[in-house]
Structures are given as C-alpha cells and as structure tokens.
User: Which sequence fits this backbone?
C-alpha cells in the first residue's frame, strides 16, 4: 500500500510537466503575437490564452509542492541536505504559483517572483544534486543527470534572463523533473539504476 502511494506521488513529477506543457500549448496557440523563444513565457499570462497559462503555473506549482513532500521526501534519506533540497523544491512550487497569480500586470511583484523562482530553482538543483549524491537514492544517474542540468543552468545565468534563456531554463527544469521522476518510478518498481 505504501509503495503504491509513493508511486502515485512520484508520478506527479511526470504529470505536472505534462499538464504545464498542454496548457502552455493552448495559451501559445491562442496568442498570434507570441513567438516561441522570442517572447517571455509570462507574456502568455496577459494574452488571449492567459487563463490557460496562468492556470498551468498555479496548478503546476501546487503539484510541485506535493511532489516535493510526498514523493521526493520518502525517496531521499533524512539527511540535512535532503531536507533542505526538499524544502527548496516546495518553495519553488510556491514561487511558480505566485508567477501565475501575479502576472506581468503586477509590477514589480511579477518580476520579483520570476527572478526568485529561477534563482531558487538553480539553488534547488545544486542541493538536490548533493542530496542524490550523498544518498545514492537514484544511483549514479540521479546525481549525474542533476549535475548536467545544474551546469546548463549556470551556462544560461550570464544571459541575464532574455526570452531564449528563460525558455531554455524552463524546458531544462521540465526535463529534470521528468527524468528524476521516471528514475524514481523505475526504482520503486524494483528496477536497478546505474
């Protein structure tokens, strides 16, 4: 019973990004002025498909909080670094939801929540990489895959958050979430990870 429950919570790491991408696509298709990689994602939050994009942020943020406490926490050992990584992942979820609530129409709140989300998520990835390395919860794959995403995040950092780097950062976060969730689900199914 516990194993099934943890699989359910871990599957949020695949469901949440899928839901985000579906609603993001609806918002993008609804806005003829939006160009992928040339506009900030948040531009969709004040356009014709704002309902879809802002819902995607709020729902995904809420699911990220659940994923961190209910899915990731049981996976990682109770080490201090693990607790810190889990707490920051939950904070990321709250910040993401705030981006959807405080759209570009709210200045400077939207900017503050957006910058806080991206910088905090980069810190979260560093902490999560360390926690996965110390616990070996997902084998070499877990911390090596996370480390690659961290390096990519640091490469994007000097770009200053232009629309392209923002889009690349969002999609790298999605890839990380799906990859870690899939690896955790495989582990929960009894399959060994490298």
Assistant:
């Amino acid at each position: 019973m516990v194993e099934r429950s943890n699989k359910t919570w871990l599957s949020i790491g695949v469901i949440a990004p899928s839901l985000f991408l579906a609603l993001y696509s609806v918002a993008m298709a609804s806005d003829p002025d939006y160009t992928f990689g040339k506009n900030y994602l948040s531009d969709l939050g004040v356009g014709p498909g704002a309902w879809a994009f802002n819902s995607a942020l709020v729902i995904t943020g809420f699911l990220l909080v659940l994923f961190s406490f209910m899915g990731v926490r049981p996976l990682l050992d109770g080490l201090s670094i693990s607790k810190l990584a889990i707490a920051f992942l939950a904070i990321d979820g709250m910040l993401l939801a705030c981006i959807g609530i405080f759209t570009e129409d709210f200045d400077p709140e939207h900017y503050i929540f957006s910058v806080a989300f991206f910088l905090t998520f980069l810190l979260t990835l560093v902490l999560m990489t360390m926690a996965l390395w110390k616990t070996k919860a997902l084998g070499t794959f877990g911390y090596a895959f996370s480390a690659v995403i961290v390096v990519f995040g640091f490469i994007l950092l000097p770009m200053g958050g232009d629309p392209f780097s923002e889009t690349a950062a969002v999609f790298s976060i999605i890839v990380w979430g799906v990859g870690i969730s899939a690896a955790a689900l495989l582990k929960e199914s009894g399959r060994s990870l490298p």
